[in-house]
Design brief:
two-stranded antiparallel ribbon; elongated; three-stranded antiparallel sheet; DNA polymerase, domain 1; hpI Integrase, Chain A; mainly alpha
Length: 285
């Protein structure tokens, strides 16, 4: 009896929308960081929108090169373009593992180079005057003002990421070897580190916890219109609004929570400030 062999289906050269959605799900499931998942989800969605708007495109190296040119024409920052291209490469890998495009096509997409970064300082970098103005304009006697000042102090003084600050608990702030620290902080990609807390930041946090009466659980909570604490945490949208309003009051344009982290990375923070409870590292600049 002759045996009938099943013909092998040739790999696709053009991926339909269901294929892209399936591949995107595979990419997001392979990432462990929530922040990475949000970033890649946005990057892949932008590529899918562009890919579907172009007629009769095959998913290959030429298409990815055209997409890079499209991103450059939008005058996006090199870091943003390289991140979008990294997401497209990840899509190609996952699609090739699923048998959609051939491994040769995926290898060709891998060879697409990113944009060179030639000694350009990207993003917003606070000066000493801007940092001082940002903190001074956030001071106040209300419960909301004390919370917002403590949040800005931690972002500037400790260089926390947005997700790290929102997940911060009261118990994580500990006294070790006569120094206040954020102990066992779970950061990006599951890394665990201990972050020192300057004295002026600890005083700002103490004023918030004393006024709010928070003794355990999540450190920062939402505050309703009546000025009362509401819920067991705070959303990223609220954090963005806090930074946005503080930046507007200080006359700083397009300031994001992560921009405050760059100040800590770009200069040495003093271990201790002895000029009173309102002193900040900017007073020593």
């Amino acid at each position: 009896m002759p045996t009938h062999r099943r013909k092998r289906r040739p790999p696709k050269r053009s991926l339909a929308l269901p294929d892209l959605e399936q591949t995107k799900s595979a990419v997001l499931n392979s990432l462990t960081s929530k922040s990475g998942q949000r970033t890649y989800d946005h990057a892949i969605n932008e590529f899918v929108d562009w890919y579907c708007s172009e007629p009769r495109l095959a998913f290959n190296r030429t298409v990815v090169l055209r997409y890079r040119i499209h991103l450059e024409q939008r005058r996006l920052a090199p870091t943003t373009i390289n991140l979008r291209l990294a997401a497209v490469r990840r899509v190609a890998y996952e699609a090739a593992d699923s048998g959609l495009p051939s491994p040769e096509l995926a290898a060709g997409i891998r060879r697409v180079k990113g944009v060179r970064r030639i000694g350009v300082r990207l993003g917003n970098w606070l000066t000493a005057d801007q940092g001082r103005s940002l903190l001074l304009n956030s001071q106040g006697d209300s419960l909301r003002s004390k919370r917002n000042y403590a949040i800005l102090a931690l972002l500037i003084g400790c260089g926390l990421r947005r997700g790290e600050l929102l997940a911060l608990s009261v118990a994580s702030i500990q006294l070790r070897e006569e120094h206040w620290v954020i102990a066992d902080l779970h950061g990006k990609a599951g890394h665990i580190r201990t972050v020192p807390i300057p004295l002026w930041v600890k005083e700002a946090v103490d004023r918030w916890t004393e006024a709010s009466g928070i003794k355990n659980g999540c450190l920062f909570r939402a505050i309703n219109k009546a000025g009362n604490i509401w819920g067991e945490g705070m959303t990223p949208k609220v954090l963005w609004e806090i930074v946005k309003r503080a930046a507007e009051a200080a006359g700083i344009e397009k300031l994001a929570p992560h921009d405050l982290r760059r100040y800590t990375e770009s200069r040495t923070m003093p271990n201790e400030v002895t000029r009173g409870p309102s002193a900040t590292p900017f007073d020593l600049a």
